[in-house]
């Protein structure tokens, strides 16, 4: 279970000038723990320490960076139960989903430990013209310098890890602001990092109020800003970020096509998970389900039956599938969107009811495409079904969105799969599975309002490094 208090970490060390941030048990309510909050002075000290640490981080050998990450993997393995229980309480994540996230945290650091030794350069032929005869060229990647990270509430461990682990692999010091609703996961990572012998100032993990966190975005000593969160906040931060590089992982309203040749039982089982795992609070959770008209009724009935069987309740209990929404405010918003969809002509097939922070797994059909439940990001256990007759028209409907993160296509037709990959304006197309599928070493990110740049260890390392060229003239 959670401890009563948690310090923040500034320049690798714990500090507790206060315990002003209350972290609530998302299912039971009430204060579960108190966390130290950083003020502007602490953030300034952390950035200054990161700048001072940059030379020492840059000079670490690849094997040393890899060893640090492997030590983290070993510590996370030892603390699996503690990490999973913390997610249940601070995020309301069902225990099976929580264990899955801990496993992904371990995977992310393990892959980063391997990639730390694979940051390659090239020999560049120069003599492509007579004036370059006698010249040789080489390039390598070097750390970009101090980085700024802002992580969200829905994956408190693994989405922080997707910033922290590649930064260590690349040799970049960093400051990180975790979500105030779920700061404990990042602070547990900080505890582990503090035991690895990283250079002083290499990392700071600082819960703080959003209105006091401007330095994370505006300070020019920071050379990269990586933000995961809402589009409204992300694009506003980019506008204030100045000269630094910016990576944004933002929202989505992911669609999934079920074509006429799909295995209906398999597709229904996978979409059930894609729509409702961790109570739908994922930017690639299945929100729109487009089903071929010839199989629509059969598929719909299967999915409704499976959805009604999902157990909602205490996230610490093994058979719970639907846990709480992150706050009652967000649960009320989602309930309002469902009522709005009904008023616009939509029909609730199952679910639709809310009690406090608990929202039933909900399916609707006949919802107009301009209703928020279809065109905006729901971020909860709600999905909308519709039918199609023409595959190309279905692709166009998937693209009829301000978002473009990932899409799922259940088809056995190779040519349709290729067409989806060629045409869809999304960061990733998943054939034979849901858009919610992700493995932690793949390039992950979106287009349009879904973001800018890619995560996945190798691609994050590229963003956290710069190319440096060497040219040698032989007289």
Main attributes?
7-stranded mixed β-sheet, 38% helix, Aldehyde Dehydrogenase, Chain A, domain 1, 475 residues, 15 helices, 25 strands, globular, 6-stranded mixed β-sheet, alpha/beta
Task: Tell me about this structure.
- It is globular and about 75 Å long.
- The model has no long low-confidence stretch (mean pLDDT 97).
- 53% of the residues are buried.
- With 475 residues, the chain is α/β, with parallel strands linked by helices.
- Helix 2 (62-78) runs antiparallel to helix 4 (95-115) and helix 2 (62-78) packs antiparallel against helix 5.
- It has two domains: 5-250 and 451-471, 3-Layer(aba) Sandwich (Aldehyde Dehydrogenase, Chain A, domain 1), CATH 3.40.605; 255-441, Aldehyde Dehydrogenase, Chain A, domain 2 (3-Layer(aba) Sandwich), CATH 3.40.309.10.
- The protein has helices at residues 40-59, 62-78, 80-91, 95-115, 158-170, 184-193, 215-218, 231-240, 264-276, 296-308, 328-343, 372-375, 391-399, 414-423, 457-463; strands at 5-6, 8-10, 13-15, 21-24, 31-35, 122-124, 135-143, 147-150, 174-177, 203-205, 224-228, 245-249, 255-258, 288-292, 347-350, 354-355, 358-359, 362-365, 382-388, 403-404, 406-410, 428-431, 447-448, 451-452, 465-473.
């Amino acid at each position: 279970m959670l401890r009563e208090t948690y310090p923040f970490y500034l320049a690798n060390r714990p500090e507790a000038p206060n315990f002003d941030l209350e972290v609530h048990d998302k299912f039971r309510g009430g204060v579960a723990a108190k966390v130290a909050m950083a003020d502007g002075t602490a953030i300034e000290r952390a950035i200054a320490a990161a700048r001072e640490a940059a030379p020492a981080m840059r000079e670490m050998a690849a094997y040393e960076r890899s060893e640090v990450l492997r030590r983290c993997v070993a510590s996370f393995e030892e603390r699996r139960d503690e990490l999973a229980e913390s997610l249940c309480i601070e995020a309301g994540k069902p225990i099976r989903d929580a264990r899955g996230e801990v496993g992904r945290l371990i995977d992310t650091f393990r892959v980063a430990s391997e990639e730390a030794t694979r940051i390659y350069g090239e020999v560049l032929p120069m003599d492509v013209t007579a004036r370059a005869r006698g010249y040789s060229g080489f390039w390598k990647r070097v750390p970009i310098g101090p980085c700024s990270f802002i992580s969200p509430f829905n994956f408190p461990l693994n989405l922080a890890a997707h910033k922290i682990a590649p930064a260590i692999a690349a040799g970049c010091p960093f400051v990180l602001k975790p979500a105030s609703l779920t700061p404990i996961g990042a602070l547990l990572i900080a505890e582990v990092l503090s035991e690895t012998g990283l250079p002083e100032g290499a990392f700071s993990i600082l819960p703080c109020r959003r209105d006091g966190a401007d330095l994370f975005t505006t300070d020019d000593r920071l050379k990269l800003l990586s933000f995961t969160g809402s589009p409204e906040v992300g694009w506003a931060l980019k506008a204030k970020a100045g000269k630094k590089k910016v990576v944004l992982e933002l929202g989505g309203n992911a669609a999934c096509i079920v074509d006429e040749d799909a295995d209906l039982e398999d597709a229904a089982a996978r979409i059930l998970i894609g729509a409702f795992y961790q109570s739908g609070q994922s930017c690639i959770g299945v929100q729109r389900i487009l089903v071929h008209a010839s199989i629509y009724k059969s598929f719909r009935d299967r999915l409704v039956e499976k959805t009604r069987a999902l157990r909602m309740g205490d996230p610490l209990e093994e058979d719970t599938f639907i846990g709480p929404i992150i706050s009652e405010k967000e649960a009320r918003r989602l309930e309002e969107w469902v009522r709005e969809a009904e008023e616009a002509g939509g029909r609730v097939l199952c679910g639709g009811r809310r009690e406090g922070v608990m929202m039933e797994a909900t399916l609707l059909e006949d919802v107009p495409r301009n209703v928020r439940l279809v065109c905006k990001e729901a971020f909860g256990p709600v999905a909308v079904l519709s039918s199609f007759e023409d595959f190309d028209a279905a692709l166009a409907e998937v693209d009829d969105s301000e978002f473009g993160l990932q899409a799922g296509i259940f088809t056995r037709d190779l040519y349709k799969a290729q067409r989806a990959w060629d045409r869809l304006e999304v960061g990733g197309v998943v054939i034979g599975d849901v858009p919610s599928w992700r493995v932690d070493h793949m390039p992950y990110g979106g287009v349009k309002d879904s973001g800018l740049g890619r995560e996945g260890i190798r691609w994050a390392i590229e963003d956290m490094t710069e190319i440096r060229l060497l040219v040698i003239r032989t007289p």
